[in-house]
Amino acid sequence: MRVTSVFGLCMALLASTVIMWAALQTAALAETKAKGTPDAPKSRADWPTERVTVIGKRGSVRDWLLNHTLLGTEGFSDGSAPADVGSRYDFYWQIYFKPGGKIEAHYSRLASRVPHGPIEEVGFVEEGTWRIDEDGDLCQSLEHVGYGVEICYWVDRRGDRVAMYYTKCGAFNRCYVGRLGPEGELVPGRAFTK
User: Model-level pTM?
Assistant: First the structure.
């Protein structure tokens, strides 16, 4: 009788271990599907933070962007914050690439609505320009982003998502060559959500 109860206890323990393992595997699989991967990104967190170049896999950046809207985010880090303070912010960044080298941008950033007023997240809408340079990089300029100086990106596309990595910064003080800039989903037409 005693052997049977020890045996039964061991079997119950083994069964509960198998059930817990299966539940953990299912949860891990669901988290992977929800999060995405570098090959099938679903958010900014799935992209490498530094540019990774795969030879022969680029395609036509102009064709990807023309008459499409990028619905995504742009990051900002407050370099004046102490090292132990989280100062990374992601803001919405939506930009429509018009024919003729014009862009319409809807985005937010930290700003003050009035001189010396409180700093808050403020939405902006403005027009600018875009072109593809001799290196195949996207170059764009907006008056309130980088003081209107042209900023260029190497564009990586995976499915309907793109990531833009800085290649030329001009006077833009938040730009570091090779670092991830705007990221998001490309949708056909003028398709702003904000």
Answer: 0.68
